[in-house]
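Consortium newsletter contribution from the modelling node. Members have asked for a concrete example of what our holo predictions look like. Here is one, prepared for the calcium ion complex that several groups have been discussing at recent meetings.
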Amino acid sequence: MRRAVNQDSLSVVLAESESGWEKFGHLFLVADGMGAHAAGEMASRLAVELIPHQYTKQQQAQPSEALRRALTEANAEIYRRGQANIEFRSMGTTASLLTLLPEGAVLAHVGDSRVYQLHGDHLYQLTFDHSLVWEMQAAGEVTDETARSGVIPKNVITRSLGPNAAVQVDIEGPFPYEVGDRFLLCSDGLSGQINDEEIGALLRVLPPAKAAQIFVDLSNLRGGPDNITAIVVEIIDPLIASHGQQTIYSRREPLDFSKFSTMLGVVTAVCFLAALVFAVIQPPLAVVAGILGLISLATGFVQLLLRREPAQADGSRYGKGPYRQFRATPNLSLFEHLAGTMKALREAAEERKWKIDWTQLDSLFSQARAAADGRDFTTAVRLQSQLIIDLMQQIRTQRRDPASDSAIDL
Ligand code: CA
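And here is the predicted structure:
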């Protein structure tokens, strides 16, 4: 809404064959450029052109190493061009890259664009924001409350591709993924306007194309101060679901029966043996012994469960992600928030006499309201999102129509 140029770039490279997928995976990349005039555009465009090219050039390296090299090479080239031309001096760009490989999702990341994964009813942020506020929080220099308060500007980034000759690249994963999981890659034009709970709920209830559209529309409706880029990926083919068996979300060690308490083991055995003997000579006592045996066995199990170590950072995993997690539940507050946005938009439309066809929108809205009253928030949020998408579409069409006598300035 407020930027004349788009400094964001993106790239999607799907493997063309099974062997290609096994080697390089499917690749998704978002880059958010910064710098004066055309420099930001140039930096992010270079990133999305150079990185996939450099990555698939590395035939011998492991994906994680190939990714690191691809970003490092791209950084060197962007830096070189920045040095060569005064107009592009110190240009920089974020780069968040997701590869879906047989072993899981592996990420390479620099800057404050984000990669999220929706798994079940939770949204995970897989990337660390290389921003001043996140770095200070991680170093324990500010409390979470201060960080949230907005005292530290959110848009100061501490790492990017281009401004310096060298760059440190985060490699994350492999994160397992399953059919039905969704990924979102986005620039801060989106994550700065829509909070994580909303992102999670919308990603969960809407089909990918609709989710991407509502993210862009909502970010614009909330002021759209920055360029907005979103890539939504849904896993639909069981053949490409990662082969990793463990899930990061509830990883726990399996029960180790060799750690079963010796004493309780002996007590259990003696009780059951006694139960067998009493079964012949004293049946009531057999029942008592049997019950005691079961109690002892159950106690042993509870001990095992309690002693089991929670899963710790797996040595075979790069990085420390996921960094944050949220419940992704469509609820009344999200519905009301969307309804409020819609109401404000309607007032603006009426005030400015935009030509909007309200009949269908009104009918959708009553359905959405009825669903919300019936506490079916999935349907309510779905319908309300559709409403906003439809209305924004009508507004965009009108904006493009030179015959329209009401110029629309959103
Ligand atoms: Ca941005």
